[in-house]
Structure formats: structure tokens, C-alpha cells
Design a protein that fits this description.
The structure is a homodimer of 241-residue chains.
Chain A: E1 2-5, H1 10-21, E2 27-30, E3 54-57, E4 60-63, H2 65-75, H3 88-100, H4 105-123, H5 129-150, H6 166-175, H7 190-203, H8 206-217, H9 225-240
Parallel strand pairs in A: 1-2
Antiparallel strand pairs in A: 1-3, 3-4
Helix pairs in contact in A: 1-2, 1-6, 1-8, 4-5
EC number (chains A, B): 2.5.1.18
GO molecular function (chains A, B): glutathione transferase activity
Family (chains A, B): Belongs to the GST superfamily. Theta family.
Chain lengths: 241, 241
């Protein structure tokens, strides 16, 4: 199986960490989002939606991280049950989060990251305070729902179930992305902090290794490094957009 | 199993039609969105996210239409395979659409419906042309992707596979919602038109019965009936928001 990904992309990280933790072999194909390689017309032959992550298993092309996860579970029967429990109710709890996150965690955290980090880079101007505040307000609401609703049940240690599942990987990768844009999602959220520590305990050193590139960008908003990244973006922008 | 739903809600219709077509018994609980019954604090005990559709199976509470669909398939082994194929690749194709739709079909069509129909109702003023045009632009892009990418493969008659699946039900209910706000998604899209006819052929009379309430609202934007609905909304708004 070939995996196309960029470790800067949150769902890419989740799939990559899941494969590594479960020792599932794959051919690694990095698609640099920062160089807009996903928008090259040749990449359309890999994924018709021009996004990462995606896989090619022999001649079977598949997009959408959550669909990829389910396909990997279905075709690798040795994966430990807790990642996606066979029990219908336990599995439904994992599914409930995986479906919920698209228009909540994903839209909110990636939305903030986009407005506060990516767009200023692409548009060569400081981020709009009004847009940042709107995106932040939405993100705060979603993170509070995770703190107060998803993580309020003391009978389970993880988001959906009592053992770590793919829901936790998807959530952790998404929730820490805004740190790059100088927002700390854990501050004032004790349940979220405790949960994130548990996720890392269960997944390290793989988790930290996969996140090293993203960690390295934290705070780059304020540094001259931003301009280097910016120049790189612009040089490729003309070519591919 | 108890189903909480409103046939005005697109994912509610998809689940309702799926249950009826498969003759799965359920206790019907209508939650009138137009009367904001989903926002009543007592409804939080049914679904902690205060949304429809949701189910209660004995003491098991579950939200998120796609997760509900998978739970119903897992707990009802007699459901015909084509709705959610057991073959890993076929199932992955259905999953791919079900995951993709959240931030594409759903956000775009429900977004347009909200801006062009619901918000003007709630805010007691005509819709903002700028906002409508923005929402319409996004919706057109998504509908074109369905026309040109999802439906371009002539080897399969439906969205994800060659037989009807739950992906088609979710898509059909979502895609026709903007008709209420006077946008015809089928105009100039022959693949979409043909596919929609196939979906109806496979699901009628259940599909049309479940959609009767929504059909009845088509074009109400221009009619005095709007004001009746508006009054109803407002009378409940003060009470529950």
C-alpha cells in the first residue's frame, strides 16, 4: 500500500501514526502541501480530489482519512480491537466522534489555523483581527464541548471509549494544530490536558516523532522564519495555481 | 429503538427513509425544528448535542446520522448488502462519500439553505444578496464536483457503487434541500438528474412520502405562507433561545 501524506496535515498525521503504531507496512510518499504539490495536475491521477492523505492499494485509490482508517482495519485483521471495537455499541461511540469531528473539531481548529497562519502566509499580509476573532470564537466553543461534553464521563478514559481509539488520534492531531498559530488549546481545560497526556503516553515515541515537524513550527508566526516559508510558497504558487 | 427526527432535516430524512425501506421497526418521535424543540433543555437528556436525528436503543443514546446508519446495519443483519457492502473496497467507496459529504455536500447545500431561507426567516429581514451569492458559489462548486467527479464513472450507476447505497440517500436528501430556497440543483447537470431519477425509482413511494413536507415548502420564499412560518418561529424563539 502506498500512503500519500504531509505530516503538516492533521489527518495525514493521524493515519501515519496509526499505521506506524500498528506496524502496518506502507510505501511512504510525501506530498509537500507547502510546495502545493497536491495541486499539480499529475496528483489528480492519485487522488481525484487533490488532497492528502490518500492511499493506493494495488490499483485501488481511496481518499478521506476516516474512510482510509476503516479500510485499513477491514483489510488488516491483526489490528488490536480497541482502535475500532467490534462491539456494535463501542464502535458506534467511535463512529459518533469520527462523524461529529468533521464539522466541529476539524472545521474549527483547521479553520483557525488557516485564518491565523496559512492565509497571512499566502496573501503576504498580516492576519485580519476580525477574522481571527471569529474563527477563535468558534474554536473555543468546540474545544469547550470536547472539555465539557465528550470528556465529562469519568467512566471512560478516552474520547469515545475506555481504551484509546482512532477517535483520539484524529482529535489530538487536530486539537494541537492551532498551537502553531499561537493558541494553546489546553490552557484552562483540565480534562483536555489530562486526556492529551494519556494519548501521548499510549502512542509515544511514534506520536512525537510524527509531530516533530508541526511542533517545530509552533510560534513561527512571530519569527523571521515565516518569511522563508512565505518565499517558498510564492515561488510555487505561480507555477501551480 | 426510538428515532428522534424532523423530516425538514436532510439527515433525518435519509435515516427515516432507510429505516422504512428496510422495514426496521422504530418508535417515531418528531422533534419540530421549526418550533426549536431540539433546543429545549429536556432534549439534552435525549441527545447531548441537541440535534436531530438521534436514536435511543434501550438505554443507548446515539447521535450523528452516519454513525446511526452504521449502528443500524451492525445490529440488523438482514439489511440487504448493497446499502453498505461487506466487501472492503465497495464499503470503502461508500465510506469515502459519507466522509467527504460532511464538508462538501452538507456544508454547501445546508449552508445555502440556511443563508437563503432559514436566516431571513429568523432575522425577519430579506436575505443578504452578498451572503447568498457567496453560499451559492460554494454550492455550485460542490454540485459540479458531484456531477463531474463522483458521477463521471459510467461503470457504476450510483454515487459510490453500482447499486444504491446509503451514500445515495444522504446525497439526494441534501442536494434537493436548496430547491426550497428556489435553487434547482439539477438544471444543467445531466448526470445528477439521471442519478436522482434512479435513486427515486429505487426508493419510491417511501422517498416521496418522507419528502412531502420539504417538497411542500419549495418556493415558499415568495409566498405569504412564509410569514405564517415566520410568526411560528418567533413565538417559540423567545421561549427557548
Amino acid at each position: 500500500m502506498k500512503l500519500y501524506y504531509d505530516l503538516l496535515s492533521q489527518p495525514s498525521r493521524a493515519i501515519y501514526i496509526f499505521l506506524k503504531l500498528n506496524k502496518i507496512p506502507f510505501e511512504s510518499n510525501v506530498v509537500k502541501l507547502g510546495r502545493l504539490q497536491h495541486l499539480k495536475s499529475s496528483f489528480k491521477d492519485i487522488n481525484r480530489f487533490k488532497r492528502v492523505p490518500c492511499i493506493v492499494d494495488n490499483d485501488f485509490h481511496l481518499a478521506e482519512s476516516v474512510a482510509i482508517f476503516r479500510y485499513i482495519v477491514a483489510t488488516n485483521p491483526t489490528i488490536a480491537d480497541h482502535w475500532y471495537p467490534k462491539d456494535a455499541k463501542e464502535r458506534a461511540r467511535v463512529d459518533e466522534y469520527l462523524e461529529w469531528q468533521h464539522n466541529n473539531t476539524r472545521v474549527a481548529c483547521a479553520g483557525y489555523f488557516r485564518v491565523a497562519y496559512m492565509l497571512p502566509l499566502l496573501q503576504r499580509k498580516p492576519p485580519s483581527k476580525e477574522k481571527i476573532n471569529k474563527a477563535k470564537g468558534h474554536m473555543v466553543k468546540v474545544l469547550d464541548l470536547i472539555e465539557d461534553v465528550w470528556l465529562q464521563d469519568e467512566s471512560k478514559r478516552f474520547l469515545a471509549t475506555n481504551e484509546i481509539s482512532f477517535a483520539d488520534l484524529m482529535a489530538a492531531c487536530e486539537i494541537e494544530q492551532p498551537r502553531i498559530a499561537n493558541y494553546n488549546p489546553f490552557e484552562g481545560r483540565p480534562n483536555l490536558t489530562k486526556w492529551y497526556e494519556q494519548v501521548k503516553l499510549k502512542t509515544n515515541p511514534v506520536y512525537d516523532d510524527a509531530s516533530a515537524y508541526a511542533y517545530n513550527l509552533i510560534g513561527t508566526m512571530d519569527r523571521s522564519r515565516l518569511y522563508k516559508i512565505l518565499k517558498l510558497f510564492l515561488s510555487y504558487r505561480v507555477k501551480y495555481i
